[in-house]
Amino acid sequence: MDLTLILAGIIVFGVGAYVILDGFDLGVGILFPLIPDDAMRDTAINSIAPVWDGNETWLILGGAVLFAAFPVVYAVALSAFYIPIMLLLFALIFRGVAFEFRFKATRSKNWWSRAFTGGSTLAAFAQGLLLGGILEGVTTGPGPQGSGIALEFAGASFDWLTPFSVITGLGVVGGYALLGATWLNMKTEDGLRDWSRAAARKALYVSLLALAVVSLYTPLKFDYIAERWFADMHWLSLSPVPLATAVVAFSLYRELKAGSHYPPFFYAIALFLFGYLGIGISLWPHILPPALTVHNAAAPEQSQVFVLVALSITLPMVLIYTVYAYWVFRGKVEAGAGYTH
Question: What are the coiled-coil residue ranges (predicted)?
Answer without folding.
Answer: none
